[in-house]
Amino acid sequence: MNKILNLTPELYQYVLDNSLREHPVLTELRQFTATQRAANMQISPDQGQFMGWLLQLIGAKKTLDIGVFTGYSALVAALAIPDDGQVIACDRNPDCTKIAQQYWQKAGVAYKIDLRLADALETLDKLLANGEASTFDFSFIDADKRNYINYFEKSLMLLRQGGVIAIDNVLWSGRVADPNDDDKRTPVIRAFNETLHNDERVDLSLLAIADGLTLARKL
Ligand code: CA
User: Fold this and answer.
1) Which residues pair with 166 in a beta bridge?
2) What is the CA(116)–ligand 1 centre distance, in A?
3) In DSSP terms, which residues pair with 73 in a beta bridge?
């Protein structure tokens, strides 16, 4: 039996009305991004709030944000971690990240975010080469789907035991369960989900929130 509610627009609005405590700069950033191209790449505010809650639950100080876009999830992380915490934000796009930086500054937490404008795999390799394996508490993967498995493997190396990796878009608008879907990224995400399901190095939970969010805890 299907125990997940069908989230009607009215019910989703109810969820927001009765739980959202969004930082005013996050609200501003979200509303600005909604007017931009590729606006649907931004995570939803309830997902952001959940991630901030999770970061505080695990006492995260050092985090990775793989795929910055206009900076919403990195800002969520920067607001959730302590003053001496650090977000390593990975993205190649100078235009989107310029917007991100403006809002990070406006929220007064830019000093916690270290933007690395480069191929994310290169940045992760550099962190590993720099002796930072097993030092991160959290990694949010939300970049090109083709490299999800590589981002996952490198994040796993960079995380401490008990650290959490959150992976976005794992339900891919529901296409993962549609046998007639012809999007070329769908099989990539299906294969990724299957690999994680069988990965005994992590505890796992696939949440049917937003576009699907998998949480993997390093054992
Ligand atoms: Ca996403």
Assistant:
1) 140, 215
2) 19
3) none
pLDDT at 25: 98
Structure tokens at 16: 């927001």
d(CA 144, CA 188) in angstroms, rounded, equals 11
187-205 pLDDT per residue, tens: 999 999 999 999 999 999 9
Q: Could you tell me where the DSSP H helices lie in the chain?
A: 9-17, 24-33, 45-57, 72-80, 94-106, 120-129, 148-158, 186-197
**CATH number of the structural domain 9-218:** 3.40.50.150
Buried residues in 40-53 as b, exposed as e (16+ CB within 10 A): ebbbbbbbbbbbbe
Q: What mean pLDDT, rounded, does the chain reach? A: 96
| pLDDT over 80 at 1, yes or no | no
- Secondary structure letter of residue 9 according to DSSP: H
Q: How far is the CA of 172 from the centre of ligand 1 (A)?
A: 9
Tell me if 96 sits within 8 A of 126, measured CB to CB: no
Domain extent listing, the chain: 9-218
- What are the tens digits of pLDDT across the range 40-71? 888 999 999 999 999 999 999 999 999 999 99
Question: Once rounded to an integer, what is the mean pLDDT over residues 166-179?
Answer: 95
Q: In what order do the strands lie in the sheet with 159-168?
A: 113-117, 86-91, 62-66, 136-141, 159-168, 213-218, 202-207
d(C-alpha 163, C-alpha 72), whole Å = 21
Residue 16 Cα to ligand 1 middle (Å): 19
